[in-house]
# Entry
Amino acid sequence: MEERADRGPRVVLDSWYEEERIMVPSNPSLIVDLRSDTVTKPTPEMRRAMAEAEVGDDVFMEDPTVARLEALAAERLGKEAALFVTSGTQGNQVSLMAHTQRGDEIILDENCHIFNYEVAALAVLSAVQARGLRGRRGILDPAEVRDAIRPPNIHHPKDSLICLESTHNRGGGSIYPIETLREIRRIAMEHGLAVHLDGARLFNACVASGVAASEVAAQADSVTFCLSKGLGAPVGSVVVGSHAFIDKARRARKMLGGGMRQAGVIAAAGIVALETMVD
# Structure
């Protein structure tokens, strides 16, 4: 601990552990824990569904509960297929791996989750270069996205993907206006780029904006959303997209050790989340 003449001691954090430790409530009897929506707990209905879930081997695509969750998620977001993954980070990273090739460049907001909170996985796993733009509370300006797309040149990386985040964590929960999403989608299609939406809290954004999840998802080639956080499930996220995209993402998930066996036990809570926790 360092002493400061003006304001007294300043705590110096030596590790992520210390940072997490100081976030623990000093009073365990607190009625409401507002640190994060990641501290939500499964409902009694979720616990019952988990205990009674019909299961199989999901690596062999034989778990009926996982299959039901994936079909429900794909239908809800208007996509062809879906993939159950362990976390939002894993969902984002298998999406990057499926959309890009080594040496590509991806365009994103400089404060987004993929760039700041996923341990440089975009560089380590996909070997892509990030081109960070400064959005307004995380919301990218379509004109700046257009200007960031590089023309073909042997000296430049190939731009292949635009990553968006809504709601935007470091933007204070900001939400992409649907017209902005449509314009970025149009620009991406014009230049042959894919769009991935990190929608960890997608359904919060949809409730707040009044725009259907399927309409938001239509503006992206792939979408990740969390079953935990505001939806209350204990674990897991879902990635949605085309059949071809999900086939690639499934292989990437296996590569990352995300191939789960009797995963219906946890997928069951996700089904309850989508059926009961979404307006």
Summary: The beta strands are 81-85, 105-109, 129-133, 159-165, 194-198, 222-226, 237-241. DSSP finds twelve helices and seven strands in the chain. Residues 1-5 have pLDDT under 50 and may be disordered. The longest helix spans residues 64-77.
